[in-house]
Specification:
With 59 residues, the protein is mainly α. Helix content is 95%, strand content 0%. It has a domain of 29 residues. The protein contains one helix and no strands. The longest helix has 56 residues. The chain starts with a helix and ends with a helix. The mean pLDDT is 89.
């Protein structure tokens, strides 16, 4: 009967680690998604400005 508290502590620790890892993965996914959107916006702006420069050089 003495092993029951040990198992409870191990189960709580395992659940806590599971939550920590899941939260970390969610955070990294969110940061990567935001960064990809920011890079896509920057690339769009660069393409727009380079097209405008090319168009202006032709005129």
């Amino acid at each position: 009967m003495d092993t029951l508290p040990v198992f409870n502590i191990l189960a709580i620790a395992a659940f806590g680690l599971l939550l920590a890892v899941t939260g970390g993965i969610g955070y990294l996914t969110l940061v990567e998604w935001r960064d990809r959107r920011r890079r896509d916006r920057e690339n769009k702006e660069l393409r727009r400005s380079s097209k405008a420069k090319k168009r202006g050089a032709r005129s």
